[in-house]
User: Fold this.
Amino acid sequence: MVKIRASCRLYGENFSPRLAEERTGLRFTRKNELGDLGQSGRFRGTPIPYGSATLEAPFDTQTKPGNVSPEEWVIDVLSPCIEELRSSGATSIDLDLEVVWQDQCNLAFDAAFLRKVGRLNIGFTLSCYEGRVGESWMGENDTTEE
Assistant:
């Protein structure tokens, strides 16, 4: 395996990322409020009919500090805030792992981590991309060694 990045996508027809940030102290990326004008895609130039945001782990498996993985960081940050996020209108909350691999890809999650995800009652998405260390990935220029 080469690299794993973790994020959480939040969405809701009445979700307010601004309200959620105020209530939880979290800081989201790629966020839009209900009614914001779309910058791209099918809502480009028109009001977006939902609110959405992304919470990203500030590191990946190659740049992680200590023993915490990016997916554990996201779950640990979400856990105390999950009810506030829902009361801010988030009806869809998904842990999203992006995995870049080369040669062979084996993923394993320990039971404690899976219990944490289960207790939050959120979705879990895993996307895999074949790649090589040193290649650009997801808009980055990765120059780290294996």
Summary: The two ends are 9 Å apart (CA to CA). Residues 74 and 107 are 17 Å apart (CA to CA). Residues 3-134 form one domain. Confidence is low (pLDDT under 50) at residues 141-146.
